[in-house]
Design a protein that fits this description.
This protein is 42% helix and 18% strand. The chain is built from 22 helices and 19 strands. Strand 15 and strand 16 form a beta hairpin. Helix 5 runs antiparallel to helix 15 and helix 19 packs parallel to helix 20.
Amino acid sequence: MKNRKITILAMLVVFVLMLSGCELGTSTKIDPAAVNYDNVISYIDDLKIGLSKVTPVKGTVPERAATNDTSTMVMYELPDISSYDPVVIGKAPNNVEVFLPLEDNNSKISQVVESAARKYNEEHEGVSSITLRILESELANDFIKSGAYLPKGYIASNELYGLMLKENGIKVSKVTDRLVGNTIGVVIKKESSNKIKIEDPEKMFDSIFKSVMNGEIKIGYPNPTNNPSGLNFVISMLSYFDSTNPFSMEATTDFSAFQSKVSVAYSTKQLKESANRGETDGFVMEYEAFQNDASLKDYGFVPFGVRHDYPLYAVGDVSEAETKVLSEFAKVFEETGVKEMATEAGFDKNENYKSSVNAGAYDGLIGEVLDFFKTEKKSGKKVAVFFVCDKSGSMAGKKINALKESALNAMQYIGEDNLVGLITYDSGVYLNLPLAEFNTEQQEFFAGSIQQLGSGGGTATNNALLHALKLLDGYYREHPDTIPMIFLLSDGYTESGYSLSGVKCLISAFDIPIYTIGYEANLDELKSIANINNGVFINASTDDVGYILKSLFDAQT
């Protein structure tokens, strides 16, 4: 009788775990609460997923990867400008094109500027006009810096990005210091602000810094190489440590110590997701975007740094007539309708805020700041990346060819001192290339493995991910200074092996970001995989894969 009671109790426990656990697509169930970093490998081993080793064959390394000629990479990777249609098309004889770069923060600046452009065109019909093209911030800057495409006007988030163009040899002149008023700051959870010792409300940012250094709170900021707010943050911190010399021993030493306490992400979206998961207490964001984000109602805002007042610049050789058009366009932002729209959108707030950082003091130093940041961020760490490539039957034709192009293209951004491995899969999982330094021989093996890929069979995406995570984590445990990451290239249609709901708790335990690239894909599945550990999803059907890969590797390395 006693044994029968124990058996019934055990059955009840299993039943509860089945209800609350990971559905693996088989009779096996796992309780997510039981999985952690210390035991996740044993859970994967218990699943007994097969892994077949493939003898690698050397192939031809793409010329750009072989030479590692960074001077031509940006120009080569830039998409055709025609892929980005103007949102406003001017048709007057004296027409001026303006770039509006956007940060990844769902700002309403595009609506305000578009409204101003349309209003200008209506008021000056038949005489002069504005063509407005809206691009992601880094993309807009790379078009200009590389000389691939020069607009006549450029709206920067802040003055620092205008200085960046100038430093890269681009002729720029400021038309106006401000189109709409805005600031950036640290968005911080209200509950976390209780941990901050505020001695003086006017020195809230100082209090946040001290709390970060004491380990009481954790914050993150977007990568300054592709985000104006991130650049503003780095420069503000260097100025905070030494206002007279940002590259003094005191400033650089203090920044290094601070950098070890914060996180850097590719995008603001990643930072917000990390905060929502409770991994950080706050992150850097523009005030207007913060106000308009309903998911941040439990956060406060602490301004700092150079104001984001969206200065307007003339770019290149601009005629007197074109300069006049840009000046008149700037005045539209003060007119009835546009001004009210900007205020309603959340701009022109924090008007009393004055920055303690002199942007002009960094004229000619932006590149030095970014080089210093990259050195500090990496701090001698190597990137260890596994490519996980789908070669199932559903990838036949254009998909597998596009996958090969993406993987081969990515080679040029991975330095020889980093590590690369390759796993492919259909209904089975194959180790094509063990993780190793990306020297000439490893590059040849990687290229050969990718070039020989065919397609056929089922799709065991999640089985392949588990093996990649296990192998990558094994290296990381022995080399904790490594930066681990996975690139999953697939159409997202899982037909074999374990379900995503089943492996999600296992994937999460590793905390290794997975960047997913989808080819005519099941977008929801690939987005879900990317979101587990703060990765990024790239839609190969609409996004420019090569350019985004460049940005992602730049952000990580």
